[in-house]
Each structure stands twice: as structure tokens, then as C-alpha cells.
Amino acid sequence: MAKSREPELTQLGRLVAHLPLDPQLARLLLFGYALRCFNPIVNLVAILSEIHVVTLAVGDEKQAAQSARDSFAHRDFSDHLMILRAFTAYSACGNNEPALTKLCKDKYLSGNTLRMVHGIR
């Protein structure tokens, strides 16, 4: 009877194992580096490692919140690109607290989460 071999990690698996991230996010980060699009991927990984960037609206605000999200979607139906655009808009405000507060309120974004992601980044 043949002896079964223990499964071995691939080279990519070994790299992923060294990163303190969910394996899917670690792979995304490594592929972003390999494909020379590291900056937006770092932003995306930082965002996806947090729970909520877009806040949920209730009642009468649901339609306004959906319209705000759609303003970041640009008709490409990609949640990841929408979140990156929201983060880019947040980052563009710099340290202007009134502008950050207004953006988050108007676009139904979580200021606390975006501040944390910006700090991670």
C-alpha cells in the first residue's frame, strides 16, 4: 500500500502564510504587487479588512443612500471599485474635518471606518 504524502504549500501559499491577513486578501495583495497595481490594491485590502465602509440607511433615507452609493459606482456594478472611489473621495478631503464630515454624511459613509483604513494605509 502506498504511503500518502502530506500536502505541501505552494510557493504562493508560503508567501500568503507570512502575511497577517485573511488568505484571500493576502493573495490579492501579492497579485497586486506582481501586476504592478499595488497602490489601489493596498487601499482595497485595507478597506476589505474592515467591516463597514458604507453605512446602512433605514426608512426614508434608503433611496438617498442608494443614490449616494450609485454616485461612486459609475455604472460598472463593482462593489470593490465603488468602495475604492469612496475611499479616494475621502482621502481627497485631506485633513479638512468639515469636508470629511460632510462627505460621510452626504454619501452615507462610515467616517470612523474610513479614518481607521486611512491610518492603516
Automatic annotation (TrEMBL):
PANTHER family: 3'-5' RNA HELICASE YTHDC2, ATP-DEPENDENT RNA HELICASE. This is Helicase-associated domain-containing protein. Gene3D superfamilies: 1.20.120.1080. SMART domains: HA2. Residues 3-84 form the Helicase-associated domain. The lineage of its organism: Eukaryota, Metazoa, Ecdysozoa, Nematoda, Chromadorea. It holds the Pfam family HA2_C. InterPro entries: Helicase-assoc_dom (IPR007502). GO terms for molecular function: helicase activity; RNA binding.
